[in-house]
Amino acid sequence: MSESGSSSNVKQGMQKQKQNPFEFSHDKILDDVYRTHFHCLEKCDTASLHSAASDVINLSMEISEKVIAKSEKLSDQFREDTTITFQQLAAKLKRIAYLMICTPRGEHPVHCTTMLILEQLKHYSWDAKVLIVQAAFALEYGKFLYLLPLIAPCQQFESSFADLHGLLMVPQNKKNLTHFNGVVKKVMEVVECITVWKKLISAGHDIRDVPTLAESLQEIPIVVYWTIFTFITCTGEIDDFTRNKDQSHDLWTQLENKLESILGKFKNLLERCSNEIERIEDFTRRKNIVSRGRDIVKVLKALIISEDNRDLRQNVYYIDHSEKQVKLEEFKKKYVLLFISGLENIKEEIQLLNSINEKLKEKPREVEGYRSEDFKILWIPIVDEWNEERKKKLESNLRETKFGWYVVKYLNFETSLKLIREELRYEGKHVFPLINPQGKVENIDTKQILSRWGIDGFPFRTSDQNQLSQQWEWFWAEMTKFNPAIQNWIEEEDCYLFIYGGTDIKWIQDFTTATEALKKEVEKMSLETNITIESYQLGKKDTKVVIPRFWIAIDSLLTSRKQVKGGERGKDFTTNEIKKMLFLKQDPKGWAILSRGKNVSLLGHGEAMCRTVKEFDTWREKLRGVSFDVAFKEHYKGIMQKDGSKKCEENVICYGFPTDIVERIPCPKKDCRRPMEVTSVNYKCCRQHQQ
C-alpha cells in the first residue's frame, strides 16, 4: 500500500464516528494490529538505533528536569557527540516524525496515526517497529538537548534563536513538563522490556520448553500498539511546551495507567520466561553432569540438590534405629544402588532391599574388584505433591521398617524430577539404577537381577544379569528333554520348582508328600505371597532309562567344558555347578534342586532339603521380609550347619582327559611301572575315619 493511499484511508477513518482506543477491547486491538504485521523482510540495526534514541531521550529528560529545578549549570555530558548515522532509515524516520507531529490532538486521531505507522512498518519485526518510532520521537524531543541550554544567559544570537523556537515559554510550563516526563519514563521502561523480550525470543529456545514465550507472542502486539500510541501522543504534545497552554492532565493519567497495566503484565511474562529459561539451562547443566559422569557425589548433587539450597545435606537421611541427616560426601567412592519409587505398593521392594542390604553387611564379599562394603542403598521416593498425608505415610514407613540405608525426604525440585525421569527412566514404576563411584550408570535397572538372584547377583551389573541368565541354560536344556512342561514353569518369575531324585525310595516318598503339603500351604497364602510351587521327580515314570541318561549327559557336558576351558578348574561357574551336581548324586538319601524361574537357587542334599520343606511352619514368617527361595536357603543352611560336622562326603567324578589329573601314579608292579590309566577319582574326607 502506498503512503498516499494509506493517508487517504486514515482521513476516511477520521471522518467516521470517532472511537476512543482506551475503550477498545484487548481482542480488537490484537486483531487490528495483527492485520498490519507481515513477514519480517526489512532489517535494521535495532541495537544501535535503540542506543542512540535512548541516549537522546534520556539526556533530553535530564535537561528538562534541570529546567524544572531552575538549574543554570548543565553537565558536560550533554555536550558529547552522538554521531551514529542511519542513512537507510533517515528518510523514514523524518516521514514518521512528520506524521506524529501533524497528528491532531485526541485519542482517535492518534489511534489512526498509530495504525498508519504500523502499516508502513509492516515488514519490520515487533521490536524494530517500536524502536523506529522511538527514534522518530527522539528527533523532536531531542531539540531539548541542544536548544534548552540556550535559554540560559548567553550570547544575543543564541537567545534570539531560542526565542524563535518558543523555548522561553518552557520554564513557565513546569507542571506540564513534569507530567510529560513521567509518561516518557514509563514508555521507555516498556521499550526496555521489549528489547529484553527480543533477546529471549531470539535465543532459540523451543516454545514447548518455554511455554510463556508463546503467551508473550500473543501479548507483544498490544504492547507495541500502546507504546507507539504513547510516542505519537507525546510528540504531538511537545509543541504545547512552547506555548502558554495547559495540557490535559487526564490524558497523562490515562496513558500512565494504561502503560502501568501493560508493563506489569509484560514484566510478569518476562520474569516467567526468564525463570523457565533458567530452569532449562540448569537442567542442561545437570544433565551433562549426570550423562558424562565424573564423580558420584557430583552426580547425586545434580540429581537431588536444589540450586537455591547451599546445604548439601538437603533432606538426605541415614535410616536405622534412628534418623541421621548426612552429607552427600558420605557416598564418595561408593557404588550407589538407587531405589526410585512412589509410596504405594512398595512393600515387596523394601523387603527385597532389606534382604540385599543385610547380605551386603553380613559377610564381606568381593567379585572382580567389587567389594560389598562399597555398596550403599539410597531411596528416592517421588510423589506429585508432598502434602501432610504423604509426609505422614513416608514417616510411618520409616518408623516401621528399620532400613539401614539412606533416603531422600520430600524431593519436590522440578528439575530433579525431570532429570530422574529422563536420565534414569523413571515413569512411575519402581526402578533400581546402579551408579558407580565415577558417576556412571552401570545398570539402568537392577530390579530383575535383584528379584531373581538376590545377593547371588552381586555386583548387580548388566553383564552379571546376562551371565546369570545363561549360566543354567545347559541344565534346562537337559531337563526339558525329559519333561517339556518344565519350560512353562521356568518362564514364570514367581514359580518355584523342586526337581529331585535319588535311590532311597522312602526318601523319595517323604519328599513327594512334603512338597505336596507345601503346595497346599502356599496356595492358602496366595493372596499374600503371589507365588506358586511346582515339583518334578526325575525318572518317576522310567527310572532305568531317564536317570542314567540324565547323569551321562551331565558327565559328558563336564568333559566337553573341560576340553573347551583347557582344564582351568574353579574359574568357570558352569563347570563348578556341574561338579556340585555330580557331588549331590552320591548322597545316599537323595538330592533336590530349588529354582525360581530359570534361576537355580539351591542344590541341596536330600535329608536337609526334606526337613526344610517339612518345617515350613517354622520359617514361613520370614516370607514377610524376603522371597521364598531366600527364606528356604536360610533355613536349609541352618540345618546343614547343625548336622554337617557329623558327616563328610564321598564323591566320585569321572574325567576324560589326562590334564584333569593332578599327579600320575605308576603301576605298582615292578616289571611294569607304566603310568596307570585313570577312569575315575574317588574323593573321601579322611576325617570320617577318625570319628
TrEMBL record:
Spell out the Pfam families in the cross-references.
SEO_C (PF14577), SEO_N (PF14576)
At the top level, the lineage of the source is Eukaryota
- Which GO BP terms sit in this record? phloem development
Chain ranges of the Sieve element occlusion N-terminal domain: 26-290
Q: Where is the Sieve element occlusion C-terminal domain?
A: 482-686
Q: Spell out the InterPro entries in the cross-references.
A: SEO_C, SEO_N, SEOA
Region entry Disordered: which residue ranges? 1-21
The protein, known as: Protein SIEVE ELEMENT OCCLUSION B-like
